[in-house]
Amino acid sequence: MIGNAFEDREEPPGASRSASSNVFPTGGRQAAAPEIDAALRTAFEGEWARVVATLIRVTGDWDVAEEAAAGAFERAAVTWPRDGVPRTPGAWLTTTARNLALDRLRRRGVEAEKVKEWIVEREFEGGTGGPPDPADVIADRDGPGWDDRLRLVFTCAHPALPMEARVALTLRTVGGLETGEIARAFLVPEATMAQRLVRAKRKIRNAGIPYRVPPPDALPERLGGVLAVLYLIANEGYLASSGDRLQRLDLAAEAIRLTRLVTQLVPDDPEARALLALLLLQHARRDARAGADGELVPLDAQDRSRWDAAEIAEGLRLLETSARVAHRTPDRGPYRLQAEIQAVHARAATSAATDWAQIAARYDELAGFGHSPIVELNRAIAHGFAEGPQAALTALAALEASGSLDGYHLLPAAQADFLRRAGEADAAAARYREAIALARTAPERRYLERRLAELA
Amino acid sequence: MEYALFYAAGTDPQPYDPAEDDIADWVADLEARGVIEYGVRLRPEQDATTVRVRRGELLVTDGPFTESKESVGGFDIIDVADLDEAIEIASRHPAARLGQVEVRPFMQWPDAVPGQRVVPAGLEERPVRGQRYFLAVVSDPAAREEATDVAGDAGDDDYPEAWVQEMRTRGARLFGEVLRPPADTTGVRRRDGRVIVTDGPFSEAKEWIAGFDLLEARDLADAVEIAAKHPMARGGTLELRPLWEFDPSTDHVARTAAEAADRDRRLEPSADEVLATLAGATR
């Protein structure tokens, strides 16, 4: 073993903070060698959702499943540094979690024999004798592990749950995020988020929400809700709504992983494919979006050589096939339009070469899907770049008058930027000050302060 | 799992279509699947009577408990595998197009006998001896607390064991159950062929149906007397609605026309008449 385990308290680079925080006991644990730490983190990121998902299927109880999974990871943190990492960490974790769940159910007074029967029955017979769960079909095609996680995604995103609970529950159960982290991401007190999660799990039990991927005839109706949840998770990752960090790459990566799973379930759905393309094209810019101090680097100032070429290529390829799949339904869906906008940016060799007219046209089409003030804001900005600052300022003034973006820092920030381009420095400065007062994350605030300073 | 499906008018109904909104196929399908346990349709709101007991005083008023436009027009009890099957069934009921359906699970008691049905077997075959009423037990926790504070008129939260026993002996109560709260409710609508599933009930009212009983009474005065004895009459509100004779095999279009005409005809005596009858009976 290389290196002094007891001195090494640094987190390995690239390790997800959130992944580690709710599993590893913080106080008094025996510090592990970096390889063990890395193995634990890899196991957490790769196996958390799978272990929870399997335990939910086996026990039918969400709380028991989560506690048992957390217990198994805690036990791993203690025994792996001592005994070494098991050959198949996933199987080790699942077995340990299942034993913990069994203990827990027995302590609750469920008769031991009944528990055993129940678990064996559920695990080996599977299902209720109805038509096969689409998740099982996927499992047969792509090997073990897919089925339970996919079930979990669809259960957490069930339309009988309120939207905010769907996103939170998916992040907690599928993504393994801590309640406190989710609460901070959505700007609510931790107690409120804990209540929300408890209520969602209670409703799943009390209302009888099934733990499965809906049958093919119900799938089209359910898919929209699932994609919306994944989109919201990615959005939170792309631009964190609070805190010191600009991006939550763990959330963005999780959303991509889950969307990939969904596209395997519905390979012919153009919108699912387009969403994956959109998320990849956005994620590809992660390294260029933040400067050395973690400050925000706007699109026109990003070093395009730092964009992830492989992800961009995959995103563009997906978009092409999405367009081909969508040929039968020629209407562009909202995810495809957004992905196409990102694709225009991705294809431009330089910021100046961006085809803003095409982007503005896509935003016009996107605005037809509903009244999203954020879409209107981006639409105004696109027209500003395509036609000149005055076009943007007129549209932004109308948006401001509507009051739909009151308190949102990016509206005065956009106004400031176009005023600056129009040569109205004083008016621009006033808008920058407004935006700074409203900014939600420290990096965004620093970026706006720098722009303000540059005006003087 | 057993669910109650409550039907209500909607704020954005689809136009009536005799072909799509015929209920006969729906009923036939559910009967063939053995999923449906019991279903009734309720007489219109003007035949509703609300019963409360405050400070020992019996208050009988005309009309439903809520001023909302979305009051319940009928319900079915179904026994299905899970919520998704309940949603599938609810979405095909004409009310999902013309209004909305609320899917409510029943309260599971810790001492419940597994497999026991909400609706007693053989109820359908039993001859109707009097007038059947849907007795909605309406809960408003805020009002209940207030009633307790002001009048010492404690709202009894417990399952009304004594009342159930007495009414069963009298043959007045056919069955009844407590429903899970609004948080566990799912709304189902169908608009332009798409099924819309939402969290929560259709009504934002702070009062909601917490449970119900099916009564068989001589007349409304008898039913009011039965309702007044229910413990929840003191803390909550009880609503009595006569059932609407319903035969799914009759000509659908003719039935709809007849019901539309019937809507304006009052079947029940007014609240004042009931109170007068009750006063006469006790004198």
Automatic annotation (TrEMBL), chain A:
Domain RNA polymerase sigma factor 70 region 4 type: 154-204
Domain of life according to the entry: Bacteria
UniProt keywords, alphabetically: Sigma factor, Transcription, Transcription regulation
A GO biological process held by the record: DNA-templated transcription initiation
Any one GO molecular-function label of the UniProt entry: DNA binding
Presence of keyword Transmembrane: no
Gene3D superfamilies: 1.10.1740.10, Winged helix-like DNA-binding domain superfamily/Winged helix DNA-binding domain
Keyword match Transcription regulation: yes
Entry's family note: Belongs to the sigma-70 factor family. ECF subfamily.
Lineage: Bacteria, Bacillati, Actinomycetota, Actinomycetes, Micrococcales
DUF6596 domain span: 222-322
Name of the protein described by the UniProt record: RNA polymerase subunit sigma-24
Region listing for Disordered, in residue ranges: 1-29
Domain RNA polymerase sigma-70 region: 50-109
